[in-house]
Design goal:
Layout: H1 2-14, H2 19-36, H3 46-61, E1 72-73, E2 76-77, H4 79-91, E3 107-109, E4 119-123, E5 131-141, E6 144-151, E7 155-160, H5 164-167, E8 170-175
Antiparallel strand pairs: 1-2, 3-8, 4-5, 4-8, 5-6, 6-7
Helix pairs in contact: 1-2, 3-4
């Protein structure tokens, strides 16, 4: 997972430096990408790194936006409305309008293979198997999964999977950006 974080840090720098420095950083990104060629299935493609960064930049813009049941716009979001807004407005991908539909959408991914941009799914309650909440993975550091979502209390905010509340309700990871 360290390689993925390295690429995202370099990509973020790429967006804020001069054209000459940008070429140097682009070269570093390509060199790092070359390392992945020897490890099939590791990390996103160069094109996907840019898409994921665009997606996460859009998601961050909405931090502290209030939760609103059924909300699908920046005046207030519910969880699936937030994920749908981010994917649709940045990448043109129309994701499900309801969190319960995510068990059929995208590609299932093992927790240890998740990466930024994946959708993280949670059961509506500890006993109920139905997906009742979703968010977008923002980082994976030393096996800890961090995500951004619209919570009933607090609106758009960051949380982590290893928090007891989310750990007991974790239902899976879905990959939308292949």
């Amino acid at each position: 997972m360290g390689k993925i974080n390295f690429i995202f840090i370099l990509s973020a720098l790429f967006l804020t430096v001069s054209p000459l420095k940008a070429q140097e950083i682009d070269s570093l990104i390509e060199d790092e990408y070359e390392l992945w060629l020897d490890e099939p299935g590791v990390g996103p493609s160069m094109e996907n790194v840019a898409e994921i960064n665009i997606l996460l930049t859009e998601a961050r813009k909405h931090l502290s936006t209030p939760y609103r049941a059924g909300g699908k716009d920046p005046r207030g979001f519910d969880c699936s409305g937030f994920v749908r807004h981010c994917y649709l407005n940045t990448l043109g991908i129309k994701t499900p309008a309801s969190s319960s539909e995510y068990n059929k959408y995208g590609m299932p991914v093992k927790l240890e293979d998740c990466r930024p941009g994946d959708v993280i799914c949670f059961k509506g309650s500890r006993r109920n198997k139905r997906i009742g909440h979703v968010g977008i993975v923002t980082e994976v550091i030393d096996g800890n999964v961090y995500f951004i979502h619209s919570a009933n209390r607090g609106g758009i905010r960051y949380d982590q999977l290893n928090a007891p509340y989310y750990k007991t309700r974790f239902a899976g990871i879905r990959r939308i950006i292949l």
